[in-house]
Amino acid sequence: MPAKMKKGYRALIDEAMAEVKTLSVAEAHKLHEAENIVFVDIRDVRELKAQGAIPGAIHAPRGMLEFWVDPESPYHKPIFSQDKTFVLYCAAGWRSALATKTLQDMGLERVAHIDGGFGAWSEAGFPVEKKEK
């Protein structure tokens, strides 16, 4: 018999969505070329290779994100210390909602995510760049 969850994934996502800034795909597209905005793709590398990515987005795999953001971490990436707004996305907006909430909890103030994620972006016909296989 499987263990009973105290709080399932849906509850975690709902809680995150209530606390984070969520951009519609149209709002995200308007911000795409802005100098003070960094799009962050948190999907697995296999998803990027299979589906492509939003042009100019940096890739920060979900499993490494907290380590790359924290300046105290040996894995810190300097991009996350810049005075920018970070717009996270995943495939559908679930992982990015959780990741955005985590980054807010860590103290990153200017962070948002895209509702519907990369799927919504590509369905809207917005630009996608292919990644090397």
How would you characterize the overall build of this protein?
With 133 residues, this protein is α/β, with parallel strands linked by helices. 38% of the residues lie in helices and 14% in strands. The chain has helices at 9-19, 25-31, 45-51, 65-69, 94-106, 117-123, and strands at residues 21-23, 37-41, 58-59, 85-89, 111-114. A five-stranded parallel β-sheet has the order 1-5-4-2-3. Helix 3 (45-51) links the parallel strand 2 and strand 3. The model has no long low-confidence stretch (mean pLDDT 95). Pfam families: Rhodanese. This is Rhodanese-like domain-containing protein. GO terms for molecular function: thiosulfate-cyanide sulfurtransferase activity. Residues 33-130 form the Rhodanese domain.
CATH architecture identity: 3-Layer(aba) Sandwich
Going by CATH, the homologous superfamily would be Rhodanese-like domain
Oligomeric state of the chains?
single chain
Number of helices: 6
The CATH class:
Alpha Beta
What class do helices, strands and sheet pairing give?
alpha/beta
Instruction: State mean pLDDT (0 to 100 scale).
Output: 95
The N- and C-terminal alpha carbons lie at a distance of 41 Å
Major pleated sheet? 5 strands, parallel
The gyration radius over C-alpha positions equals 15 Å
What low-confidence regions span 5 or more consecutive residues with pLDDT below 50?
A: none
Q: In the residues, how many domains can be counted?
A: 1
Total number of β-strand segments? 5
- What best-fitting shape do the alpha-carbon axes yield? globular
- Percent range for helical residues? 25-40%
Strand order of the largest sheet: 1-5-4-2-3
H/E element sequence: HEHEHEHEHEH
Strand content: 5-15%
